[in-house]
Structures are given as structure tokens and as C-alpha cells.
Specification:
Strand order of the largest sheet: 4-3-2-1-5-6
Number of helices: 3
Shape: elongated
Number of strands: 6
Strand content: 25-35%
Order of helices and strands: HHEEEEEEH
Largest sheet: 6 strands, antiparallel
Radius of gyration: 25 Å
Helix content: 25-40%
Distance between the termini: 78 Å
Number of domains: 2
Length: about 160
């Protein structure tokens, strides 16, 4: 067998694998015709596509967006954005979270927030320091990963 024949054989194997994979994934039907994926399936695989909201306490606030528009937002925080000051203390800059008004993950800066309160309890946060303290309690790990208290349901309460 020559190198040309081996190359042709390998190419044929790769082609067969690609066709079998396409048939299994449903992009080619049994007649060999291509089928576009449904738009909903494509949409669900895009980065930032709408996903179910995470569980946990929500924060509601007024927010000035990049365009300078004042909007009301309700958000479930998912990750704390912070840096360390020269003395080693953690300084909260903002957070990432599921924006219930936009239906997607967004990033929020504390300096652009006002009139914030806990949407579950109604607790009002007087300033950015109180918002940062609440976020730090909600997202306490240094990496910003959420560590949640279990939610009590009516069936689990005594």
C-alpha cells in the first residue's frame, strides 16, 4: 500500500465518521439531505442565552446603565466582583447575576446602583457599604462561588 492509498483510506474513514455523526445529531436525514437545526435549539446553545434563574435571594435597585439610562432591576447575584486593597482587605466592586428584567446574566457595578433593597425581605440598603456587606454574606467564598443556605419549604418547617 502506498502513501497515497493510505491517505485516501484515512480521508474516506474521516468522511464516513462525519456523515455518521451528522446523521446521529440529526443534521442529515436518511436521504442525505441537510436539515437546519430548530432556531430554539440554536438559541439555547449561544453564550448568554436565556437560562432559568438561579435560586436565592434577589436584590432590587435602580441602576444607571452604560447608555446613562436609569432602570429598575431585580437580580439574583451569582458571583462577587472584587479586588484586594493594599492592606489586604477585600473591596467589592460589584457582582454578576441573573437579571430578571433582562432574562440574562449581567454585570453590575456598585457605584451605578441606588435605592437597593432585598427583594425577598424588604431590607433596605442605605449605601454601597451595606450592599457590599450583603453581597459578601450571600457570596462569601474568596472565589465568588455561591454558598447557599438551604431554602425552607412549607413542608420542611415544623
Amino acid at each position: 500500500m502506498t502513501l497515497g492509498q493510505m491517505g485516501l483510506g484515512i480521508g474516506l474513514i474521516i468522511l464516513v465518521i462525519a456523515v455518521v455523526r451528522a446523521v446521529i445529531q440529526g443534521t442529515i436525514n436518511a436521504d442525505g439531505e441537510t436539515q437546519p437545526k430548530p432556531e430554539a435549539e440554536i438559541e439555547s446553545r449561544r453564550p448568554g442565552a436565556l437560562r432559568p434563574a438561579p435560586q436565592g435571594d434577589r436584590i432590587a435597585f435602580r441602576y444607571v446603565d452604560r447608555a446613562g439610562n436609569l432602570t429598575n432591576r431585580t437580580v439574583t447575584p451569582t458571583q462577587l466582583d472584587f479586588h484586594f486593597a493594599s492592606d489586604g482587605t477585600r473591596v467589592v466592586d460589584g457582582f454578576d447575576g441573573h437579571c430578571h428584567d433582562r432574562g440574562a446574566i449581567r454585570t453590575f457595578r456598585l457605584e451605578d446602583m441606588s435605592e437597593a433593597h432585598n427583594a425577598e425581605t424588604g431590607e433596605v440598603f442605605a449605601d454601597h457599604g451595606e450592599i457590599a456587606a450583603w453581597l459578601s454574606a450571600e457570596l462569601p467564598t474568596p472565589s465568588g462561588r455561591r454558598r447557599r443556605k438551604p431554602k425552607h419549604t412549607a413542608a420542611s418547617q415544623p
